[in-house]
# Entry
Amino acid sequence: MSEKKTKRIISADDGSEVKAGSRKRAAKQAAPVGNATGLRIGAVALWVAAIAFEVVAILILVGTINWTFMSATAQLIIALVLDLICVVIGSLLWKKANRIKPASEKNKLTFWLWNNMGVIVAAFAFIPFVILALTDKKADKKTKAIAVVAAVIALLIAGVASYDFDPVSQEDLAAATSAITDDVYWSTFGKVYHTTQDCHALNVSEELTYGTVEQAIAANRTRLCAYCAKRDAITGVVTDKNVDDIVLDDADVIPDAVQEPAEAAPASAE
# Structure
């Protein structure tokens, strides 16, 4: 088993450090996790800018825009890079908003659209340019080839960055906040949150952040550590893997609710 290290425990509320071993939040209201509406407005504004940069790239390609101090190829690359930056940052803001105020899974289509909006925008921000570049017979062949390759690469990067691999639903958030009322912990580079700072999965972590479940999910820790879920007998919450596959160490304390009853000793022969 990995050697335990002394941990720094940081509050998600204000970034202050608390004494290791302390589990209780200071007697104050938890800091808000963020403004989902503001994040969505910012995302839409950036996506509009991305489409505008795509239009600029198209105008450069067809020769409507031509700055003489720079080659057409360089102009196209700059426009496509700015397009990519706006798409990716907008998608990150949108995914952050989805962590704070997720959509409901009751309507499968709406839920899918809401969580894949960034990918859809990425398609609109690059595919029309690629199609036009491939069909434009007047454009310089070399410039067109470079532009198409750059646009396809940008599309792939934007698509991967925009895709939400761990979407959260209203139902997921409600189940987690209902089942877990105490503070939770997460590491700097981890993808899950834990109900205790002493979880064996955190043994090598030197710094932990603690806060509410809402704060953990807003920080992109969308799933509960399955080890913690089994040890604390927490059900109905999204975990990082199948809880039934986890084998607890003998030294771990298992709640009475999940302990298996001991088999009766066989009677000795008379």
